[in-house]
Design a protein that fits this description.
The complex is a heterodimer of chains A (about 300) and B (about 325).
Chain A (H helix, E strand, L loop, with lengths): L1 H28 L3 H6 L5 H11 L5 H13 L13 H36 L4 H15 L2 H15 L11 H31 L2 H8 L4 H26 L1 H12 L4 H11 L2 H29 L1 H4 L3
Helix pairs in contact in A: 1-13, 5-6, 5-8, 5-11, 5-13, 6-8, 7-8, 7-11, 8-10, 8-11, 9-10, 10-13, 11-12, 12-13
Chain B lengths: L5 E12 L8 E13 L4 E5 L6 H8 L7 E6 L2 E2 L5 H10 E4 L3 H4 L6 H11 L5 H14 L16 H13 L5 E5 L7 H17 L3 E6 L2 H5 L4 E6 L2 E7 H6 L4 H8 L39 H5 L5 E3 L2 E3 L13 H5 L1
Parallel strand pairs in B: 3-8, 3-9, 6-7, 7-8
Antiparallel strand pairs in B: 1-2, 1-4, 4-5, 9-10, 10-12, 11-12
Helix pairs in contact in B: 4-5, 4-6, 5-6, 6-7
Classes of the chains: A mainly alpha (about 300), B alpha/beta (about 325).
Chain lengths: ~300, ~325
């Protein structure tokens, strides 16, 4: 198992390095930051001074080596826009983003999986129809619209929660609820479909034929087998969490990474963009690593190959 | 005479098929008015082609699917009158062996866990005893007890089917339903598993319901046979007498279609064409559209099982068909 994790970790590091290189090069070919930062009427002298200031006049390999050297020491440069340390910007915005995305994800799992299981077990019942109708609705209404509806109900109409901002925990409730609802809907639908498929397997019929009690059939036979596809799905969903927060953060003026990222891309603030993409990559790589380790724990077929 | 182990009376299972929105569902009968009797230690073969309703019959007998009509008695008790406790007892005394042993085993549990599970959930044995009995059972089906810790994917198809059989027999049932239990196995492995089934039957107080489409295999396993066509039993009787002198045109066609290694054996009748069309049954004999001997009466009057020779046949013209010269012997 240790060797397995080690080899996966080595691969994760390779992914991180190649992403950093790729992003670095592509960003330098996609528009001149000097022009975007200073505006189209800036004098050539001002632009040249800007490039010298940020080292953009050097060759790309040279720039990358310098960047790498600094990055390995934890220095990701400064924002072109306001000269703030990129590390500080990220350090400030990460907790905000993680608060919304991780709590929304946990709530979505806690809501979605039991709802999906109940719907699958009581298939075609009123409960099933209610759960599925809610899930389809939650999935098909765009997230920003759900956000606006929540703002209307809880901030404008009932006046119990703030509509936007990120200063107190009460500000977090609506963004989390919006994001959780959407994810819970996807999880519930997938959990139901997976469990129904497993319940049709011959080993379930065999267990019923042997008189294994229904609760035991669900817990010992069906759920462990439904867990493998479910973990895959949750992994994919988790990697899309950060992307999803961009939308939610915009609607609720939540100053997390999503909002910062959108601003930095628009302004050509290369240092910020690079560092944030690296953070996203670390996030995705970590999730994939977690999923693979979970696989190995859940599936005896993979476990025994180690 | 004591009550039979298993009896079905007028057993019928229909599946509703909706033809349109708000349309009244059309019923297709997978089993239609089936009357069967099975004594203790008796082995009954149920044969028929795909769609003949033989698997449905197996699931009905085990109470895994409810009948549309009719009754099932096991040890004299009607399924309909079984309490929760009664069902538990029934589940202990019966078992199911399915076609594909890989999907019939839980991929997440070890062989030992799966075999001993029944003993544990029915509180027949504690952990240690259950483990010991499972190991013994595994040896009885011809596998080393060291395989207890394996997972299904670490075994061959034949070994897996032995595990499924071990799991089916661990509670010492009186009746085991085999649903195409050897059909997915290689021919050489089939022979081994069939030999195992004969051996186990000799050692135990066991009755078999052996559902298959394989006419060669069934002869080595059962005492009595019921041939099904479109949810009905069209011929039933002692296995040897049916193979020696099949009376129903469908049985005759089935037996004639068994591939032969001997070129001197020629078919007693032309092979039947087409497939089962479940949706097209009206009145009359269900086989008449494919029967080369169909007469007018076959379209108007549904034949019922009646005694002809040594067996029971549902055919108006059953007496007219001669005893085939070679076919019975060849099939053995």
């Amino acid at each position: 198992m240790a060797g397995f994790i080690l080899s996966k970790a080595a691969r994760a590091f390779a992914v991180l390095f190649s992403t950093a290189l790729f992003v670095f090069v592509v960003l330098r070919f996609s528009g001149d930051p000097a022009e975007r930062m200073l505006g189209e009427f800036a004098t050539p002298e001002a632009q040249a001074a800007f490039r010298t200031l940020w080292g953009l006049d050097k060759s790309i390999p040279e720039q990358f080596l310098i960047y790498l050297q600094h990055a390995l020491q934890g220095d990701f440069g400064k924002s072109y826009a306001d000269g703030r340390d990129v590390f500080d910007i990220i350090k400030q915005s990460i907790p905000k983003t993680l608060t919304v995305s991780v709590s929304a994800f946990v709530i979505a799992i806690l809501l979605g999986i039991p709802a999906g299981i109940v719907a699958a077990i009581r298939r075609d019942s009123a409960v099933d129809r209610l759960v599925m109708a809610t899930a389809v609705l939650g999935n098909s209404i765009p997230m920003f619209l759900v956000g606006l509806i929540f703002i209307f109900i809880f901030a404008v109409w009932l006046r119990v929660l703030p509509s936007s901002g990120s200063s107190t925990w009460r500000h977090a409730i609506l963004p989390i609820a919006t994001f959780a609802l959407y994810n819970a809907a996807s999880i519930a639908r997938f959990a139901r479909a997976t469990l129904i498929e497993v319940l049709y397997q011959p080993y379930i019929a065999a267990a019923r034929g042997d008189g294994i009690p229904p609760s035991e059939i669900i817990l010992r036979h069906a759920l462990p087998n439904a867990a493998i596809p479910l973990v895959t799905m949750l992994g994919i969903l988790a990697t899309s969490l950060l992307g999803g927060t961009v939308l939610v953060e915009t609607v609720f003026a939540w100053t997390g990474m999503g909002a910062q990222f959108v601003r930095a891309v628009g302004q050509g603030d290369l240092n910020v963009v690079q560092a944030m993409i690296l953070v996203f990559t670390v996030f995705v790589v970590t999730i994939n690593l977690t999923v693979e380790i979970l696989y190995a724990l859940l599936n005896p077929k993979i476990r025994s190959q180690k | 005479m004591s009550a039979p182990l298993l009896e079905t009376r007028n057993l019928t299972k229909g599946f509703g098929q909706k033809t349109g929105w708000l349309a009244k569902p059309k019923f297709l009968y997978a089993s239609s008015s089936i009357d069967l009797k099975l004594n203790s230690r008796e082995r009954l073969g149920i044969v028929g082609e795909s769609g003949s309703g033989k698997s449905t019959l197996g699931r009905l007998i085990l109470g895994l699917t409810p009948p549309t009509d009719g009754e099932i008695f096991f040890e004299g008790v009607n399924h309909k009158n079984r309490s929760t406790r009664g069902w538990k007892e029934f589940r202990v005394r019966t078992s199911l062996v399915q076609q594909n042993p890989l999907s019939a085993l839980n991929p997440q549990m070890t062989i030992g866990e799966q075999i001993s599970e029944g003993l544990l959930v029915h509180h027949i044995a504690g952990r240690a005893v259950a483990h010991e009995r499972a190991a013994k059972m595994l040896e009885q089906v011809g596998l080393p007890s060291a395989m207890m810790t394996r997972y299904p994917h670490q075994m061959s198809g034949g070994q897996r089917q032995r595990v499924v059989i071990a799991r089916a027999l661990i509670l010492d049932p009186k009746l085991v339903v085999f649903d195409e239990a050897v059909s997915a196995l290689d021919v050489s492995v089939q022979a081994q598993v069939v030999a195992l089934l004969r051996e186990l039957w000799q050692q135990r107080d066991l009755a078999y319901v052996f559902i298959t489409h394989d006419l060669r295999v069934v002869r080595h396993v059962v005492d009595r046979i019921a041939v099904m066509y479109l949810g009905r039993v069209v011929e039933t009787g002692n296995i040897d007498s049916v193979y020696e002198w099949p009376r129903h045109p469908y049985t005759r066609a089935l037996l004639a279609s068994v591939p032969s290694m001997d070129p001197t054996i020629r078919n007693i009748q032309p092979p039947i064409k087409g497939e089962l069309d479940v949706a097209k049954i009206g009145g009359g004999c269900p086989f008449r559209s494919r029967c080369p001997f169909a007469i007018e009466k076959c379209a108007t009057e549904t034949p019922v099982l009646r005694t002809v020779g040594n067996q029971q046949v549902a055919c108006h013209r059953a007496e007219e068909f001669p005893r085939p010269v070679q076919v019975g012997r060849e099939v053995a």
